[in-house]
Amino acid sequence: MTTASNARALVFNAPGDPLRLESHPYPVPEAGEVLVRVRCCTVCGSDLHSMAAKRPVETPTVLGHEILGEVIATGGVVRFWGSDHPIVVGDRVTWSVSVSCGTCRLCERGLPQKCDALFKYGHAPMLTAGPFSGGLADVCLLRPRTAILPVPERLSDEVAAPANCATATAVAALRAAGDVASRNVLVQGAGLLGLTAAAMATHAGARVLVAEPDPGRRATAQHWGAAATADPTQPDFDDHVRAFTDARGFDIALEVSGAPAALAQGLASLGIGGAFVLVGAVLPSAPWPIDPEHIVRRLLRIQGVHNYAPLDLRDALRFLEEAQERYPFSEAVVSRHGLEDHEPALERARQSDALRVAFVPEA
Question: What is the DSSP letter of 34?
């Protein structure tokens, strides 16, 4: 448990090494900073990828970025993003994973998520960020210029925690895709990101087919708005595409699986004028050959989405508040654990039926 002078953090040192629960002096927020008590932090697939050496990360570090917190101190007057309303002790908050400077060329172009001086919670080395920049800890110290938003009262901690990763990323992907109303949409992958994208697209008036090799996840997708599902590894997948789209191909495809095979398959599934939004391809892989004539003659558009902007987090919270009773967001977290219980928690998180596992530091 946290003491008056110290707080705990789970430190990741190297792939294959167990996380180490450490105690560090309690941080005191300076001007513009906000100190929050971590109420809930859900384990994202990228956290597991970091631990398995599938994505590079500077160590030692404290992982965890899908965080929901309660304000316990502020460094002076700090305001919610996009509002004049001051943040006060006791507020239940979420915040953007990425912190941007607001003045560089990319920020000025409307791409704050790719800021030249970008900082990311749950991704920073302790040497420069300290022990309380990730969610697998008792507290998290929020930097100046962090886009902090209040969490609607109707949202539980466990529903709201993934909002600043999976939910906001799904919003960004659909924003990149354009209007989905009355469109046929292919979602490739049925992890929490894919399921959320399916629910959002359906909620916006799309017909959604979810492509997923795992039969359990295909069954789950039908509760998240999918009008149909199909196994992309089977030879009859193209038959499913033709039947679902009346042989016209999809208007939009969202690649959220990270599977290299999904790239060629998604592009081939598009109809004339279709848009292919790539979200899951964030790990090193073999080059993907593309026939440029196919792109040109079929008027196709390919766009990548990485991170998201603060407005996407705002819209993610609005969507969850509006749609949480229509789709089973409350069932995404399959188990809850204290920080000291991290080994069984991570073992559970690696199982295919676990959309999310939650760390609740005071559990």
Answer: E
